[in-house]
Design a protein that fits this description.
By secondary structure, the chain is α/β, with parallel strands linked by helices. The chain folds into 2 domains: 216 residues, DHBP synthase (Alpha-Beta Complex); 101 residues, 3-Layer(aba) Sandwich (Rossmann fold), CATH 3.40.50.11030. The chain has 11 helices and 16 strands. A hairpin with a 6-residue loop joins strand 2 and strand 3. Helix 1 packs across helix 5. The protein binds adenosine monophosphate and magnesium ion. Adenosine monophosphate binds next to strand 6. Adenosine monophosphate (AMP) binds next to strand 6.
Length: 346
């Protein structure tokens, strides 16, 4: 299959290109498209065979459910049973990087939800994504547009790297603004929320909507073999770099000294804060943003991991992020990529 790349800089002026993409989706094909979080690999969410094509193109296990993307928060009621808590979340955070798990209606095939009777719903804020969904008139099921086991794509060239020859069309909307996948919450029977995956809508932000916000175990802790996560994707190791990734925890100056010594003695790739970059050798060094600049770190992380994986380094080091605010989302992605390997530097 030939994979076409189309650049979209102005979705209104380039409506005819998005109309073509909507035709591909209506005909049961797949289109990768930008969102504010990461690039999605889209198919018609009401079409069982489109969902199957998504799993095949990604090489994704079919019990790992897809998120359906809608053009307007109110459209959720067409595909799922909504309640007052959903409406409050929608008012506060949609369109934006929040996904809500709701009981599904029959029009959403079981293949989309990995056999679950719930469906994950999100209304993205990215103008290309919104326009594309609106032109379709049906929701778009879209997991991240990476091959299973690779970091989520934050640029069209990441998508191309993973999906060339596997899908017909990639819409290039530039670099994703946030760079980490959406926050996922489940609404509990008691009106509380369970955070299934942390993202740019933070724990503290969710606490403004509900006074009962729980954090699912799998967010911060490695589950045992026999434990079932509330969110099926959490049982999969999201990303496995060829070289092992090790997170470094400890005082900034001690960590820097450790890295300098490692660079002198072995081939290592390093994800570092910009403040530390000038004190380290430039080879296989990937600055991800200032120490306190979590939004930039979020935006750069997956690109830096992909780059580090393209080196011949025998080990990859990255700093241990904080666990509060946006840090929890960084922590969750990094600890899983590192298979929970943390080295304490004393
Ligand atoms: P991705 O689309 O690659 O960002 O992954 C979507 C993730 O959303 C999956 O890995 C699941 O963990 C989660 N998810 C989707 N649907 C549900 C659902 N119905 N219940 C719980 N988690 C879900
Ligand atoms: Mg994904």
């Amino acid at each position: 299959m030939n994979t076409e790349l189309i650049k979209i800089t102005d979705p209104e002026a380039q409506e005819s290109k998005l109309t073509r993409a909507a035709h591909v989706l209506r005909a049961g094909g797949l289109v990768a498209f930008p969102t504010e979080t990461v690039y999605g690999l889209g198919g018609n969410a009401t079409d069982d065979s489109a969902a199957k094509k998504i799993y095949a193109a990604k090489g994704r296990p079919s019990d790992n459910p897809l998120i359906i993307h809608i053009a307007d928060p109110a459209d959720a009621a067409n595909y799922a049973y909504v309640n007052g808590t959903y409406l409050a979340l929608a008012k506060a955070f949609m369109p934006g990087p929040l996904t809500v798990v709701l009981p599904k209606k029959d029009c959403i095939p079981a293949s989309v939800t990995g056999g679950l009777d719930t469906v994950a719903v999100r209304c993205p804020s990215h103008p290309v994504a919104r326009k594309l969904i609106a032109l379709c008139g049906f929701p778009i099921a879209a997991p991240s547009a990476n091959r299973s086991g690779k970091p989520s794509p934050t640029t069209a060239s990441h998508v191309h790297e993973d999906m060339d020859g596997r899908i017909g069309l990639i819409l290039d909307g530039g670099e994703c603004e946030i760079g980490l996948e959406s926050t996922i919450v489940k609404i509990d029977a008691d009106g509380g929320l369970t955070l299934l995956r942390p993202g740019a809508v933070t724990y503290d932000a969710l606490c403004m909507i509900s006074d009962k916000v729980r954090v699912a175990d799998a967010v911060t802790r490695q589950l045992a073999e026999n434990e079932r996560p509330l969110s099926p994707g959490m049982k999969y190791r999201h990303y496995a770099p060829t070289a092992p990734l090790v997170l470094l925890s400890g005082k900034a100056e001690r960590v820097l000294a450790f890295l300098q010594n490692e660079q002198a003695t072995r081939r290592c790739a390093i994800l570092c804060y910009t403040e530390d970059a000038e004190h380290l050798e430039k080879t296989d060094l990937f600055p991800i943003g200032g120490r306190e600049d979590l939004p930039t770190q979020a935006k750069q992380l997956f690109d830096a991991l992909r780059r580090a994986d393209h080196t011949d380094a025998e080990i990859i080091y990255a700093p241990m992020p904080p666990k509060d605010g946006l840090g929890l989302a960084l922590y969750n992605r990094m600890i899983r990529a590192a298979a929970h390997t943390v080295k304490e530097i004393l």
